[in-house]
Amino acid sequence: MRSLLTCLVTVCVAAACVRGDRYHPADPGSRAAATVVNRAETSANYWAQEAQAAIKARLEHKESVKKARNVVMFLGDGMSVPTLAAARTLLGQRRGETGEEAKMNFEKFPTVGLAKTYCVNAQIADSACTATAYLCGVKTTYGAIGVNAEVARRDCDASTDTSRHVASIAEWALADGRDAGVVTTTRITHASPAGVYAKVADRDWEHNQAVLNHGHDTDRCPDIALQLVHKHPGNKLKVIFGGGRRNFLPIDVRDEEGEVGRRTDNRNLIREWLQDKEDRNVTNKYVWNRQQLMSLNDDLPEYILGLFESNHLQYNLQANLTTEPTLTELTEIAIRSLSRNEKGFFLFVEGGRIDHAHHDNLVELALDETLEMDKAVARAAELLSEDDSLIVVTADHAHVMAFNGYSRRGHDILGPSRDLDEDGVPYMTLSYTNGPGFRAHVDGKRPNVTAESDYRGLQWEAHVDVPLEDETHGGDDVAVFARGPHHSMFTGLYEQSQLPHLMAYAACIGPGRHACSGATHVLGQPVLLFALFILLTSLFQL
Ligand SMILES: *[C@@H]1O[C@H](CO)[C@@H](O)[C@H](O)[C@H]1NC(C)=O
Ligand SMILES: *[C@@H]1O[C@H](CO)[C@@H](O)[C@H](O)[C@H]1NC(C)=O
Ligand SMILES: *[C@@H]1O[C@H](CO)[C@@H](O)[C@H](O)[C@H]1NC(C)=O
Ligand SMILES: [Zn+2]
Question: Over pLDDT 70: what percentage of the chain?
Answer without folding.
Answer: 90
